[in-house]
Design goal:
Elements lengths: L1 H11 L21 H4 L3 E5 L4 H10 L4 E14 L8 E6 L6 H9 L3 E2 L2 E4 L3 H8 L2 H15 L6 E5 L9 H24 L3 E6 L12 H7 L2 E5 L16 H14 L5 E6 L1 E6 L7 E4 H11 L4 E3 L4 E7 L5 E5 L3 H13 L4 E5 L7 H5 L1
Parallel strand pairs: 1-2, 1-15, 2-4, 2-5, 5-6, 6-7, 7-8, 8-9, 9-15
Antiparallel strand pairs: 2-3, 10-11, 10-14, 12-13, 13-14
Helix pairs in contact: 5-7, 6-7, 9-11
Length: 360
């Protein structure tokens, strides 16, 4: 999940209970040109290393149709005068930098900034089930989309899904359907794109997201195809071909293929074996440099289709590193091809090795 990952990196460098009606068709966004249609990759731009990511985007602009700067966040407004119950959309450092927006536009790349959120399920349900507060939140999001020459908005709401309470999760799911239906209609009326980022939907995960409904109202549904093993889990691959087969198979059964994007990881985790401490984040570039520095042999795990290696540090502690590179990405892209999914995403610009672009 990018919320936890974003917090670690930055430190280091609500649903209607009754069934809602089907969404009313909204005006379509601006048509996609033939040149844009040949570009199949979107990528997130991290605000904490924006210059590296921006240079990376310009260098590969011919393959990028969209860049989503990680610039905005929905959070509790502690100064709202209502006991902390208010919600606001805040700006990250450098948000709205016109130099970056204009530079990407000059290369034919659309700019669709991402809004994350830090509200857990109870707080999000309180927001989504209150029509006045929900409308105010949609107004704030539209305000972001119109604050610059943006081409749309990417909603990446993850923390609200972190609950084992099935009833609460269903309220999140239903309320989020309502929120996104209203937001996408407003964005489409402005001829701006509505992108929704979701977690992989499998038998035991991603249940808070209604793929079918979200796929009807959004222009694109971005699936985060990473963090199968996260920083607090046991060491293992960030993604696997079997996992891709499961969630891509589900997604293509309920969402039009031309609306789907599957985002690949360009990072990894460095676990200290036997420790309960959080694994250390490494970009793909850093992981490969570390592998070479410690003299570990290159190995591509056949079962998952991802590279990994082990080493012992100066303190005698054993480490296990799993990450993603061009070879691993090729195995996962093959799964997308088998399911007819052409759209690919990347988390994140500046993380990847140069060879990955050849695979993309």
């Amino acid at each position: 999940m990018k919320i936890a990952l974003t917090a670690a990196l930055a430190t280091a460098a609500l649903g209607l209970t009754a069934a809602t009606p089907e969404p009313t068709p909204a005006p379509a966004p601006a048509p996609v040109s033939r040149t844009e249609a040949t570009r199949t990759v979107s990528a997130w731009l991290p605000w904490w290393d924006v210059e590296t990511g921006y240079r990376d985007a310009l260098a590969h602009a011919d393959r990028l149709h969209t860049v989503s700067p990680f610039w905005y966040a929905t959070d509790v407004d502690v100064d709202g005068g209502d006991g902390g119950a208010g919600v606001e959309v805040t700006r990250e450092t450098g948000a709205g930098d016109r130099r970056i927006i204009d530079g990407l536009h000059a290369e034919g790349v659309k700019v669709v900034p991402t809004v994350t959120e830090s509200l857990y399920a109870p707080a999000m349900v309180d927001l989504l089930e209150d029509p006045a507060r929900r409308t105010a939140h949609v107004d704030a999001l539209v305000g972001v989309a119109t604050s610059r020459a943006y081409d749309g908005l990417d909603l990446d709401y993850e923390r609200m899904t972190e609950t084992e309470d099935t009833a609460l999760r269903e309220r999140v799911r239903t309320g989020y359907n309502t929120l996104t239906t209203e937001l996408c209609a407003r964005l489409h009326a402005l001829r701006k794109q509505c992108v929704i980022t979701v977690m992989p939907r499998t038998e035991d995960a991603g249940q808070a997201f209604d793929y079918a409904r979200l796929g009807r109202v959004a222009d694109r549904l971005r699936i985060m195809g990473y963090n199968l093993h996260n920083a607090l889990a046991a060491p293992g691959p960030l993604s696997s071909t079997a996992w891709y087969e499961e969630f891509v198979g589900y997604a293509t059964a309920v969402v039009p293929r031309d609306k789907l994007e599957v985002a690949l990881p360009a990072y990894g985790w460095n676990w200290t074996v036997g420790s309960k401490a959080r694994a250390t984040h490494v970009t793909a570039r850093e992981a490969e440099a570390l592998r070479r520095r410690v003299g570990a042999p290159y190995a591509l795990d056949a079962a998952s289709g991802t590279p990994h290696f082990t080493y012992v540090d100066a303190d005698g502690e054993r480490h296990e590193v799993w990450y993603q590179d061009a070879n691993g990405a090729a195995t996962h892209l093959a799964v997308l091809a088998r399911h007819g999914v052409r759209g690919v995403g990347l988390w994140a610009l500046g993380f990847e090795e140069a060879d990955l672009w050849d695979a993309l």
